[in-house]
Design goal:
Number of domains of chain A: 2
Strand order of the largest sheet of chain B: 1-2
Number of domains of chain B: 2
CATH architecture of the largest domain in chain A: Orthogonal Bundle
Radius of gyration of chain B: 24 Å
CATH architecture of the largest domain in chain B: Up-down Bundle
Shape of chain B: globular
Bound molecules: protoporphyrin IX containing FE
CATH class of the largest domain in chain A: Mainly Alpha
Number of helices of chain A: 7
Number of strands of chain B: 2
CATH topology of the largest domain in chain A: Cytochrome Bc1 Complex, Chain D, domain 2
Shape of chain A: globular
Largest sheet of chain A: 2 strands, antiparallel
Number of helices of chain B: 17
Oligomer: heterodimer
CATH class of the largest domain in chain B: Mainly Alpha
Amino acid sequence: MIRLFIIFILIISPPCLADATTRPPEQTHWSFATPLGTFDRSAMQRGFQVYKEVCSACHELSHIRFRELSALGFNDKEIKAIAADYSIKDGPNDEGEMFDRPALPGDSFPNPFPNEQAARASNGGAFPVDLSLIIKGREDGANYVHSLLTGYGSAPTDITLFEGKSYNPYFEGGQISMPPPLVDGQVTYVDGTPATVDQMSKDVVTFLSWASAPELEARRQMGLKVILYLIVFSMLMYFVYRSVWRNVK
Amino acid sequence: MTKKKHPQRPSRPLYDNPVSKWIDKRLPVFTFIRHSLDEYPTPKNLNWLWNGGSLAGITLLIMIISGITLGMHYNPDPADAFNSIERIMRDVNYGWLIRYIHVNGASFFFILVYLHMFRSMYYGSYKAPRELLWIVGVLILLLMMATAFMGYVLPWGQMSFWGAKVITNLFSAIPVFGDSIVQWLLGGPNVDAPTLHRFFVLHYLLPFLIVAFVAIHLICLHQFGSNNPSGVEVKKSEDQIPFHPYYTVKDLYGLTIYLLVFAGFVFFAPNFFMEAVNYNPANPLVTPPHIAPEWYFLPFYAILRSFPDKLGGVIGMFSAVSVLFFLPWLDRSKIKSAAYRPMFRPLFWVFILNCLILGWIGQKPPQGWYLIIGRLATLYYFAHFLIILPVVGWLERPLTVPSSISEYCKREHNRRKK
Ligand code: HEM
């Protein structure tokens, strides 16, 4: 009964006892944000590098398999090599033992932690979410994650940070358990792009946007054809309609 | 008036070949088709709002086909439901297309059905002799709501879970049996595996019940035929035209435009009607900061939350739908079309505005001004049906109604020339 009451209070009470301190995300221009936009391939590759070298230490990407990286422009050999860098727990074998083996293109990105408890234990009790759907899973996702990654700063004097938290005005409540993940020059891009925090953040957001909606480009291409077809078809139907109805007064 | 005279019994190869005749004698399907297409007389002045019905029927079909296809890949197990949807989106061939059609189809279905209902209210289509037609329609709305509510639970995202929890818990407001009823509905003390499984089964079943009710709806319709913008019944043969080809082509043309808009959403804004939170897997330990139902439930949700106590809110919400059953008898006016009802016409638009206000309040926290506006709008919603409609029917002095549909068409023609 008490539980029901609490739930009822939750619907009846103001949904966000929300702090007005959370800042709305800054707006950035994304190549994929326009109706017919596509993902920038080199930004995706750089973003993947950022995910691989930085974020994957803490965050899963469970819905993506290595072979799907072909969408970024990697060929089969490169994908095999990327996968082989990861180790997967497999088994049991004929002796009934679990064993480690290098990942294959058909495997998903492995979870950096064996389970949620382990993930929380090494992150001060907070859980580093799976990033496969992060862009779709947040309002205005691309802008939000970009603002979050670039928005760390020192806390205003009226805010006391809790133990192990960093100040980030874009995060709900302003205090986040993820330490600033990016610093200038953290990765060395093979294409020579300067690895500023802003650049790395934009790149990883492009990569994660693809991971959230890998069908996006195919969807828009098909949509264009469907719409053009329907425009022609509806015009034809309009003339049929007019000619059938011409005698009705 | 139609210039050419239409033969009442068109001779068509479809009906007149020996095979058709043989079948028709034993199972009168061709008589049925002929009756509902060639011989079914329809007022000649129906406007575009009368396309809504056929579009809703087609949408129901689209929902069933896309739904069955999703069902082949979906797994109603709390541990895998969310992931199975992602597999549909990523691994199943064109799975994203099927799912986005289904998801947006649900919203479009409600848009059409609400328009269809407001059309019927404006033109008084629920009045004698079409009361049962209207009542069957309200039953269809109820079934749709149940179907959509359970469908929304299936992807097992945060809002799926918490929506299911909040709505099923409403039943605990029922005195004495409340808690047992909730337990019975959920199949356990909590929203969990048994709940998800039964919601999937029922979500699969109910659309077919809707099909049955749509058939009844159409039988009721064909008894007296369509109402029309004049609100005057068909009186002579020049008031009407055969359904085929006139309304078949008009419906088809309407369909192409509808699909154009639908495709715009499916391909270019597929998540427009969806909450981002629902792309996070259900977590019984973390309550989302803001729980709100899908847009099509928002007005009813606002009514629910306007009452100071839970039981009152539940009764209020169910009454808000149930009152529609009595609409044919609450509206005392004999005149159907709002065009000839100078008092009702503005009040109809106030009612629409009030519904929109309720929808807006439904997504706001029930506090401060929102709560006050929500309560006033709730009061007005019920007053519209229980006080305004009966009283207006009695007070109003209607304009002169055209003597026939043909007369109406002449009036309209002259009005447009001016
Ligand atoms: C009256 C027609 C129907 C309505 C209004 C409706 C509504 C919905 C809604 C709102 C969802 C949630 C979508 C989401 O947020 O992901 C859903 C999901 C689903 N529906 Fe339906 N549905 C209808 C018919 C059907 C039928 C006939 C079937 C199968 C026979 C079906 C199978 C499914 C499945 C498997 C899902 C989960 C997949 C998903 O969430 O995308 N639906 N439905």
